[in-house]
């Protein structure tokens, strides 16, 4: 029988025999799924050869179908066949060989809600394995359904503009996140390049899986929650808020930018020096945010001459308060924590003491600072909403097969009250000026007044000309007067920060024009 099935199913005799043996270990009298998603022609041939294939049957089953698979795959995830190792564990007692379980994304997080209960039949068969009579039956129970916060049309449009930006700016990948300011509901979460999760639903072949796993673009990797990257100047609103809260500066404190800070033999330049531009001169905090002045943030981060700075301990304290050193707790598996260094870590990991220059670099989001795009978006969301760090979430409700509500998710505040509202107002105004009169030119003529901060984050090694490659970031909120959404666009290796801002402008403009004239 196995010799006949092997060429029909396109699987080796050993593969088929292994599946049968594994199933027998679990239950000698239970059926085993040898192959799923059979072509119609193969089904007909098996039926035509039933006399040679005693005990072999073709059964209907339900499989996942994902509309717009590549658009939603990072969020929805995929299912995969349960392994023999998993079947041996108590928590998988309700599963049998051949079952599919959630492996990633929402499929993985909500497996228990989605799976339902299997039906069972006790069947009498004759000596040849032919079914004679159903002796007992237990009907199956459908799994529950999930209602997501995602805006279907916005997700599609954001993916379109992101992929366009990745191509235009030579980026290796990218992320778009859009979050509701007051609640933490995720309207859009995109990681690109992506994959079609329908491949997994149909039973992915080893060749197809190997192609995805070996792809250097890492389509299975969710950059939005699992990737950690230097964030560059997008850290500056946090540093400004911390300095105001700790009374290191006031709204009116002015710091002189001469183009660089010189500490002994070490020079810490403002970004203007790299472009051959004049120094910013005297700036207050709003102006420093508007122009993204590095010298201002070196100074309030580490101190210089008569101006005290926060110091590494306080910087790390506020990174923790803003959620940059912990998982956000979003309802997805495989989320990664960010990283903010300190003296103890550097001594242990690098065998070096902490220098003032290290404090300067982390004050502008460089050196060892790493964040996920979701963490960055969520920290700026706390600035937009007046100081509430929300737990971002994707699933709004669970309903049964009759659409009766089983559970409704409510917004959750992780932390609040750690920054005075008047200090946040100053930071928000600086972010608005960064758009209206500062360096974020692409958003200046947007359809809605936005406030934002960009970041051109260096990474890797210097090239032959002495330059680093850079990630492009923009993160902000809109509308400015009554914030509704917080947005982040990240282009991995995407060059200058305004490349990300160009992508963000297209998404925001669509959302506040065409996006307002359709259903979600």
TrEMBL record:
Record's keyword terms, sorted: Cell inner membrane, Cell membrane, Cell shape, Cell wall biogenesis/degradation, Hydrolase, Membrane, Peptidoglycan synthesis, Protease, Transmembrane, Transmembrane helix
Subcellular location: Cell membrane; Membrane
Domain Penicillin-binding protein transpeptidase: 175-508
GO-annotated molecular function: penicillin binding; peptidoglycan L,D-transpeptidase activity; serine-type D-Ala-D-Ala carboxypeptidase activity
Residue span(s) of domain Penicillin-binding protein dimerisation: 4-133
Signal peptide start-end: none
Protein name per its UniProtKB record: Penicillin-binding protein 2
């Amino acid at each position: 029988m196995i010799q006949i099935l092997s060429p029909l199913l396109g699987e080796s005799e050993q593969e088929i025999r292994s599946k049968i043996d594994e199933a027998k270990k679990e239950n000698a009298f239970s059926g085993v799924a040898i192959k799923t998603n059979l072509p119609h022609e193969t089904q007909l041939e098996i039926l035509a050869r039933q006399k040679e294939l005693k005990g072999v049957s073709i059964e209907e089953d339900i499989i996942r179908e994902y509309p717009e698979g590549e658009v939603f795959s990072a969020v929805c995830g995929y299912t995969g066949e349960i392994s023999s190792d998993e079947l041996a564990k108590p928590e998988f007692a309700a599963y049998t060989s051949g079952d599919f379980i959630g492996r990633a994304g929402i499929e993985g997080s909500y497996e228990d809600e989605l799976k339902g209960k299997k039906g069972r039949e006790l069947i009498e068969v004759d000596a040849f394995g032919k079914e004679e009579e159903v002796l007992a039956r237990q009907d199956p129970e459908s799994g529950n359904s999930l209602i997501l916060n995602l805006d279907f049309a916005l997700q599609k449009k954001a993916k379109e503009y992101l992929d366009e930006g990745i191509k235009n700016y030579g980026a290796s990948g990218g992320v778009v996140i859009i979050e509701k300011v007051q609640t933490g509901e995720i309207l859009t979460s995109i990681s690109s390049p992506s994959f079609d999760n329908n491949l997994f639903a149909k039973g992915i072949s080893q060749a197809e899986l190997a192609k995805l796993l070996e792809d250097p673009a890492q389509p299975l990797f969710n950059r939005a929650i699992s990737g950690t990257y230097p964030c560059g100047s997008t850290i500056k609103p946090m540093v400004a808020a911390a300095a105001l809260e700790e009374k290191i500066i006031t709204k009116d404190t002015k710091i002189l930018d001469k183009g660089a800070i010189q500490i002994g033999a070490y020079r810490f330049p403002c970004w203007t020096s790299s472009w051959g531009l004049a120094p910013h001169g005297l700036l207050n905090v709003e102006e420093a945010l508007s122009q993204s002045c590095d010298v201002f943030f070196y100074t309030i981060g580490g101190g210089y001459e008569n101006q005290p700075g926060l110091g590494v301990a306080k910087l790390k304290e506020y990174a923790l308060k803003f959620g940059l050193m912990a998982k956000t707790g979003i309802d997805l598996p495989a989320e990664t924590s960010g990283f903010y260094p300190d003296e103890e870590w550097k001594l242990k990991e690098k065998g070096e003491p902490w220098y003032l220059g290290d404090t300067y670099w982390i004050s502008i989001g460089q050196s060892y600072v790493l964040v996920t795009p979701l963490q960055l978006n969520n920290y700026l969301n706390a600035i937009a909403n007046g100081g509430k760090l929300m737990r971002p979430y994707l699933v709004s409700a669970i309903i049964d097969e009759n659409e009766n509500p089983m559970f409704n998710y409510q917004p959750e505040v992780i932390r609040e009250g750690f920054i005075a509202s008047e200090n946040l107002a100053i930071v928000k105004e600086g972010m608005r000026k960064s758009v209206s009169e500062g360096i974020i030119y692409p958003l200046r003529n947007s359809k809605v007044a936005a406030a934002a901060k960009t970041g051109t984050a260096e990474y890797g090694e210097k090239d032959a000309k002495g330059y680093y490659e850079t990630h492009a970031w923009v993160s902000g909120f809109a509308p400015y007067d009554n914030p509704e959404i917080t947005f982040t666009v990240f282009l991995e290796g995407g060059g200058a920060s305004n490349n990300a801002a160009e992508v963000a402008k297209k998404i925001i403009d669509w959302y506040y024009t065409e996006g307002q004239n359709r259903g979600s």
